[in-house]
Amino acid sequence: MTMLLRISRAGKAVLASLILSVAGSSGALAASSAGTIKVLTGSATVTRDSSILAATIGQRLFPGDRISTSSASYVGVVLRDDTRISIGPHAEFSIVEFDFDSSSYAGGLVVSFLKGTARVLTGIVGRHAPDRVRFRTATTTIGIRGTDFIVDLENRQ
After folding, report:
1. Alpha carbons 32 and 65: distance in angstroms, whole number
2. Residue 137 to residues 11, 32, 117: CA-CA distances in angstroms?
C-alpha cells in the first residue's frame, strides 16, 4: 500500500502535466478551426485530407475541408467571424484559407465553390477587411463589395 501511494504521488505530477498538455492542444485545435456545421438537411460529407466523414450538426470545420451535399440535401456553415455559407443539393465547396483574430478582427478568408448553388452572407472579416476575402469558382474570383450574394454554378460535363 505504501508503494502504491508513492507511485500515485509521482504519477500526479505526470498526470497534471499530461492534462495541461491535452488542454493546451485542444485550445490550439479550437483556435485553428474555421467554423461549424449549424444546419444539415439530408446527407453531406466533409473531406479532410484523405478521409471522408459523414457531416453532422456541430461538426467543426478546418481550412482545407471540402463540404459536399447529396440530392435533396442542404448544409449551413457558420465560420468563426460569423460568415454564413449555405449550399443546396449536389453542391460542393472548400474552405481554402481561414484566419481570424476575434480581438482585433484581423483575418482572411478564401473559399472555393466547386459545384452547385451557394448563398453567402459575409461576417466580420468581410466588413472590416473586404480586400482579404475571396470567393473562387473555376473561372473567376469574387471580391467582396457587398455582404450577401448567391453563386450558382452550372454543371458542365
Report:
1. 12
2. 54, 24, 11
How do beta strands 92-100 and 66-69 pair?
antiparallel
> Structure pTM?
0.74
DSSP string, 57-96: TT-EE-TT-EEEE-TT-EEEEEETT--EEEE-TT-EEEEE
Confidence of residue 43 (pLDDT cuts 50, 70, 90): very high
**Per-residue pLDDT reduced to its tens digit, 102-143:** 999 999 999 999 999 999 999 999 988 888 999 998 876 666
Three-state secondary-structure class, residue 29 = helix
Q: How many whole angstroms separate alpha carbon 16 and alpha carbon 117?
A: 49
Q: Which of 85, 69, 3 shows the shortest CA–CA distance to 36?
A: 85
